[in-house]
């Protein structure tokens, strides 16, 4: 796949849908971070997969209608950055893989506070490959430990913007070494990959 400056249209269209239909139910519970084997570091990862079938496509108006496995359909209008719209057909399946990652690293007293820093990447399939692509984004910043529930192994973290969220410490995480007021370097990543699958000819 070749690196491109333009984020693939499928990433924009489907990322929210995949997250809502597959990742979101799991996200209601705090993500569980696990020990990495490196002292002071813990990490977590969530993945989700969804397939969408093309039910209708109008190349002239650049409109495509997708249906999920629950039978729900939605029409999208795609922009001019999509160069291979004519290769899509009714019955094609668009497979979407979604991944979220979180890494937490203890920051010793005196460490420099890291202001929120974001990154973004995009890839698009080459001309000799099936239409598809991938897009990713990440943010890294210092967060503060505001509360610890040892019984439930829940840790509350507050970011620079004041938002508070919880994570659950896995059984091998040495939670007893953490205390309110400690600072952690949090790195959050999110990516979505899309691939067109043509139905097999009978």
Give a brief description.
By secondary structure, the protein is mostly beta strands. Helices cover about 10% and strands about 50% of the residues.
How would you describe the overall organization of this protein?
By secondary structure, the protein is mostly beta strands. It has one domain. 9% of the residues lie in helices and 50% in strands. The protein has one helix and eleven strands, in the order E-H-E-E-E-E-E-E-E-E-E-E. Strands 2-3-6-11-8-9-10 form a seven-stranded mixed beta barrel. The two termini are 29 Å apart.
Output the helix-strand order.
EHEEEEEEEEEE
Radius of gyration: 20 Å
* Helical content class: under 10%
- Distance from N terminus to C terminus (CA atoms, Å) equals 29 Å
Domain tally: 1
Q: Structural class per helix/strand content?
A: mainly beta
What number is the mean pLDDT?
82
Q: Total strand count, please?
A: 11
Instruction: Determine the strand fraction and express it as a percent band.
Output: over 45%
Shape by Cα distribution = elongated
Biggest sheet architecture: 7 strands, mixed, barrel
Name a few traits of the molecule.
single chain, 202 residues, mainly beta, seven-stranded mixed beta barrel, 1 helix, 11 strands, 9% helix, elongated, disordered N terminus
Topology:
Elements: E1 2-3, H1 9-27, E2 31-35, E3 41-58, E4 63-67, E5 73-77, E6 93-107, E7 117-124, E8 132-149, E9 154-158, E10 164-169, E11 183-197
Parallel strand pairs: 2-10
Antiparallel strand pairs: 1-7, 2-3, 3-4, 3-6, 4-5, 6-11, 7-8, 8-9, 8-11, 9-10
């Amino acid at each position: 796949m070749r690196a491109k400056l333009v984020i693939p249209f499928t990433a924009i269209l489907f990322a929210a849908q995949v997250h809502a239909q597959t990742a979101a139910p799991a996200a209601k519970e705090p993500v569980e971070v696990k020990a990495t084997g490196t002292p002071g570091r813990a990490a977590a990862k969530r993945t989700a997969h969804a397939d969408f079938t093309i039910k209708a496509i109008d190349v002239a108006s650049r409109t495509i209608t997708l249906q999920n496995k629950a039978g729900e359909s939605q029409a999208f209008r795609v922009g001019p950055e999509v160069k291979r719209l004519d290769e899509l057909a009714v019955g094609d399946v668009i497979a979407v893989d979604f991944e979220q990652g979180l890494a937490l690293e203890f920051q010793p007293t005196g460490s420099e506070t890291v202001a929120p820093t974001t990154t973004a990447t995009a890839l698009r399939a080459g001309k000799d490959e099936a239409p598809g692509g991938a897009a990713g984004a990440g943010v890294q910043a210092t967060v503060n430990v505001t509360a610890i529930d040892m019984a439930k192994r829940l840790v509350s973290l507050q970011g620079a913007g004041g938002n508070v969220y919880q994570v659950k410490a896995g059984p091998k995480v040495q939670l007893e070494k953490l205390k309110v007021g400690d600072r952690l370097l949090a790195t959050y990543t999110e990516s979505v990959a899309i691939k067109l699958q043509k139905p097999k000819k009978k």
